[in-house]
Amino acid sequence: MKFLAYLVSGISLGSIYAIIALGYTMVYGIAKMLNFAHGDVIMIGGYVSFLAAKNLGVPPLVSVLIAMAVCTVLGIVIEALAYRPLRSAPSLAVLITAIGVSYLLQNSALLIWGANPKAYTPVVSGTLQLFDGQLSISYISLLTVACCIVIMVALTLFTGRTKMGKAMRACSEDKGAAQLMGINVNRTISLTFAIGSALAAIAGALLCSFSPALMPTTGSMPGIKAFTAAVFGGIGSIPGAFLGGILLGVIEALARAYISTQLSNSIVFAVLIIVLLVRPAGLLGKYTQEKV
Amino acid sequence: MMLKAENLNVYYGPIHAVKGVSFEVSEGEIVTLIGANGAGKSTTLKTVSGLMRSRGGSIEFMGRSISSTAPHKIVELGIAHVPEGRRVFTRMTVEENLDMGAFTAPVGGIESARERVFEQFPRLKERRRQIAGTLSGGEQQMLAMGRALMSTPRLLMLDEPSMGLAPILVEQVFDIIAALHKAGTTILLVEQNAEMALSIADRAYVMETGRITLSGTGKELAASEEVQKAYLGG
Questions:
Q1: Percentage of residues in chain A having pLDDT higher than 70
Q2: CATH 3.40.50.300 describes domain B1-78+156-234
Q3: Number of structural domains, chain A?
């Protein structure tokens, strides 16, 4: 029963990683860049929903919707101001800029909201008791897993069925050819950042509901873990991000429970290294073969 | 005049790839640009479709300047460009590739455009659900051409459609080009296979190291001594 409890906590933690990883992987797939500021957008999402709930007194769902709106705009603005001018610059320049944006967001949060942790009120509370109380699952865990599945299905349908979603896949494979189809590549990249950032806001609210201490650095570690999850699953692949996120969460939870709390992060990253040695493209990543 | 390019100068960094090139295409014509590898033919096409920019000079399409129009807007105006190396979306199905070609078309017209393309390329219909990356080179060329036709272009630009294809497929591709022309599509064709290109072209330009060195009707150039020597192995 204990194992089941650890597994459930791993899956729900992994669901948060997966939601964040989807943002990383979509942006990477289309803009071919690692948006290291993605984790900090999560933190901004956390603050916005916290402040909306506290100052405006709106219900949790509305506070999350407000956070999604703010983060969507933030994502579009970051892309337009920081990354778009570097579209044809070497990838190292873009990477360094992304790290710069990350610090900018963290330090802006520090200036505006201070370093003291805020006590985030979980979006839902309470636990579900199963097997005569032997297994208890918090409602926030259930909500997180449900959110992750809904997002995953929605994104799969979006990229597989809709015109804009297909245009995204086209841009991700060949921007020049996509332009020749009449696709506006800049607008498609903006849309990707918008979706990724809205997901980051959801992840922010869920994350802070699990560990309620909200600080300017709240997004950093989950951001890096989710990036790991995206690489683990195969960066650029949407199902890969999902699988990578869940596996990472489960490995982390089990390592913490059965091996060592202190070593859990090291174990997570060791597993990543081993997977990449065996499958350099990640679990579901694939090399594209082109026929000439 | 449908397309009128004047004094194009295009650079890759310090390399001056296209040097003062001017040419025109009238409605209903097949015009070909022939020349050796690296002569600047592909770059010229890329400049027309907006992927590259000319320093100075002008490009007019249907009487309207397009020299600073965004590439996706140029497609909307009616220029479709089948790029060198086909560049189909290898991870998408044949049908999805075609739908991308109709990106600028009104939603209602996609079905009929697709049916028309399937009529021209029955092979694509057979393979409509197949992932494009698994098609043969010839089929990918058909797909690239079909995809470009999905936008019902006024001007179709083809870059090396015969490249890497078996001789029998090369003939097939040229038959299709001739059929498209007969059906009223204006075509600007870039080719290294000068013999085939000149045989179907109304007019032709010869490019050498970034410049247009000769021009005339397809017949004139096919008969010219210089072209015979340099490109036709005569």
A1: 98
A2: yes
A3: 1
